[in-house]
Amino acid sequence: MSANLLWKTRILSCKRCLVLQLSFQATKQHIRIFSNVSPSKSNIDTAGGGGGDREDNVKFEKYAYGMDQFSKKDKNAPGLFHLPTIHLPKQLDTNLKEYLKRYPRKMLENDGRKLSKHLRNRGRPTEMTWKKYKESKASKRLKDSAANIDEIMKLKSEQENSQVTIAGDEYDLDEDDAEVQNKNLASDEDNQGDEDTSAEQVSEKRMILNTKKPRNEEYKVIRYDVRESTAFGASRIPASYGATLRVIHEISRREPDYKPETLMDFGSGTGTVLWAAHEKWGDSIKEYQCIDVSEPMNTLSEFLLRGGESYKKPLHIPHVYYKRFLPVSNKVTYDVVIASYTLSEIPHLAMRREAIKSLWAKTNDFLVLIEYGNNEGFELLLQARQMIEKDQNIVNENRNDGTETESSKQGQETPFEDDIIDEGFVFAPCPHDQHCPRADIETRDHPCNFEQQVQLSLAEKRTSLKKWGFVTECFSYLVLKKGRREESDKSWPRILEPIKLKRRHLICKICSSNGELQQKTLTKKKDSDIYKCVRHLNKWGDLLAMPQDRVRPLKNPERTTTRRGKPRK
């Protein structure tokens, strides 16, 4: 480039900069002039409207922010229970890595993924599964074969009369590889046979494949030996710890003065409940009672507490005791009883019923139940809640009527009678004591579940989740408390789904204190007291600071109509 051309280019660039600078200064002066002009009251229509005489200097207190909009937000305000990504305690993480060094990493990753997938998807056929099967089967019969009403009714009667039985087989980690080989062989045979089939048979076969009938032998009991226990430690410890810590965190936030002294962990497994309880309640707990039928699981849990197999090393959390079976007697009780991902391990309904009744009888204050966030886990919690409520009603009715049970007449001691007399209520997540609005399978949109981000396990670090650095654990939980619900309890509604953020408003799906599912729309103008908190602080699973007696902070409350003469809400 020549010197003259370079000089002309520099002059043009300088002229452009000068023009941009002059236009920017003119814009600033224009804004400064019009910002000093305030609207006069004569320009505001005050005839029969609520928009007249608007007092802009009126300030309302914003929940979790105070009066000043520039004040620091309060992340510890009541109703906020969500936690950021949860990581394992340093000592637990170190001891777990030391334990997993004994085994080949590739084997740990494969076994961990298989076990985690089986635990999540092994579920026994639920009501939702049967409902989907019936609907798809009936619709395809109508569409493909133009069946009449009699055939549809016959199909429904056959499906309703079918009974679900639970197989007593045991799950083995080697079964997945065998199933893959069998499926490949079956697919090869099908490909050879399909050459001779007609078009109608192919369409009928596709219809059958698309509408699979729930298998009765889906559920299989897992015997946790050394290999299964190690696979569980390589895949499920962060998720189990994160979900338990989230639930205990809510209890400690809502009851800050509550300090339990004894805790029982039913189905303790690797002992993640101990670490979560110690994280929140510290040294106030004087006794931890762990109950798990698997001896290798108890050995792994003790290794994580000691950091080795030597008994000379002290326990990181003192006063921990292990048992393999639940005591029959209910004379020894505990302040907090927790069953984390345990009810799904009990295959039979009668066994679950006895376990739930025994756990409730051994509880002094809180009974905490945590399960997977799918339909199966949610229905297990519903069953537990209905069992306890039903037994309470029966015992209370007998006491009011003055009747005695057969065992009491014969002079025998009933194992649950004295304890179930104590009343209880749902502490969380339901803000009410009414019937669960999602209990009906016909009206349920999806199970009542919540999410918590946790660190990646060893089995997930070499997957596509590595770029995110965390995994989202979906869980359902139920916290029951002994006693009666206090009148001073705020009973704020619970946020059941992620909040939908719009430009000038937001939409929340909540479970209200009257036992109904509602969809609330909050605006910045009419809900200025809680709008900022809900938009920036509230998350899925928190309580919404909106009691029943809440009054919207409207400006000029004496006006009852809007500008257009409509009633003001």
Automatic annotation (TrEMBL):
GO biological process: translation
Single GO molecular function: methyltransferase activity
Pfam families: Rsm22 (PF09243)
Family matches, as Gene3D superfamilies: Vaccinia Virus protein VP39
Main location: mitochondrion
Localisation per UniProt entry: Mitochondrion
InterPro entries reported in the protein's UniProt record: Mt_RNA_Methyltransferase (IPR052571), Ribosomal_Rsm22-like (IPR015324), SAM-dependent_MTases_sf (IPR029063)
Role description: Mitochondrial ribosome (mitoribosome) assembly factor. Binds at the interface of the head and body domains of the mitochondrial small ribosomal subunit (mt-SSU), occluding the mRNA channel and preventing compaction of the head domain towards the body. Probable inactive methyltransferase: retains the characteristic folding and ability to bind S-adenosyl-L-methionine, but it probably lost its methyltransferase activity.
Official protein name in the record: Methyltransferase-like protein 17, mitochondrial
